[in-house]
Q: What sequence folds into this?
């Protein structure tokens, strides 16, 4: 069964796609144009009642929420492609911990920054410098903790690439591309080295090549 | 090994504790007083560098982020206590989906509501009626989708109690206790019935009895 992924150009959907590539799982994509409101169409709302991206369809099975989808596929194809949960239950626990840090500490300030820099004109938002500064400061504090963690560990969850690292790629990309905040990565030696390692993986390069970000 | 749970009185830590009770896992607690800043002490920051609750210590193993901790223990004690991830991989996928919905759709507006109602005086926040109204409206839309889901399914992920339901207990409790927003549950027939079922589980009653909420 080929997995259908909705809305491949958007960042959250790319979280799913890069995972499918790492796991060597066949997929096809279905375009959804957020800026035309296609995520609020009755058909799409049947799949994802909150009207958010991404969602997947896999035969009769459907699922939404990117971090739920990637967990599902990593377990379903445990012995295929890259092992993204580590080898032991304790390693998996740490992957889960850093996946949650990504979702709750890294993502929210970055998402606000992206809205107020990359998408302000498209969304008709007047970029608010105070909001930008506050969220940059919040994200900076988070990245300081990453810097310390990555000074003793090659990847976030340990000495292995995992879902926790992968999950940072789609929105992290905007810091260096579009948001003009690349220095937040580059000024932190270990974060910078980590970013180079994870963003140079063939899987991520393939995603960027196949599905350019919306502009 | 007895699991040590830090900060048992706070809502996020209760997410861990109710899970340990469901899984029949022995634990002890370590008090952390947020209002005295004990979560920023050097010792606690070694355990949880972001200074957030909860964290656990289990022999030499430590973990933080409540939703990571509960996933870890549900897998580690798969055949003990309540089965909180369902029986199949597909059921587990749906549990993960609704756990993410809890974290990203249900929790953020509710958390803001709780800050501006329950804890405003303790935190020195002037309750902002506009913020309260906006977040109540957001949460209401989320609960409308829950209402539809729960009209065809006894629990969120299917016809079985799971981590997805459990994860709503600690902050959902505030809607009916302290925030004065119980009508948001009670005005929605299926949400109300679901809430009664999950909040009457012996595990949750035990948590409330053992560890009263901070006032």
A:
């Amino acid at each position: 069964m080929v997995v259908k992924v909705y809305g491949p150009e958007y960042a959250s959907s790319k979280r799913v796609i890069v995972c499918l590539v790492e796991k060597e799982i066949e997929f096809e994509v279905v375009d959804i144009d957020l800026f035309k409101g296609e995520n609020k169409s009755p058909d799409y709302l049947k799949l994802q009642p909150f009207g958010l991206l991404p969602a997947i369809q896999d035969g009769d099975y459907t699922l939404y929420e990117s971090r739920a989808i990637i967990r599902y596929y990593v377990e379903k194809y445990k012995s295929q492609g890259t092992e993204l949960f580590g080898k032991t239950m304790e390693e998996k626990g740490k992957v889960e911990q850093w996946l949650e840090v990504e979702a709750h500490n890294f993502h929210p300030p970055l998402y606000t920054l992206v809205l107020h820099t990359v998408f302000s004109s498209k969304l008709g938002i007047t970029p608010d410098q105070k909001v930008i500064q506050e969220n940059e400061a919040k994200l900076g504090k988070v990245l300081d903790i990453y810097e310390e963690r990555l000074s003793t560990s090659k990847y976030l969850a340990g000495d292995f690439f995992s879902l926790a690292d992968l999950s940072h790629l789609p929105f992290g990309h905007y810091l260096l591309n579009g948001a003009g905040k690349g220095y937040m990565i580059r000024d932190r030696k270990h974060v910078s080295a980590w970013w180079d390692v994870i963003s140079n993986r063939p899987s991520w390069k393939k995603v960027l090549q196949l599905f350019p970000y919306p502009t």
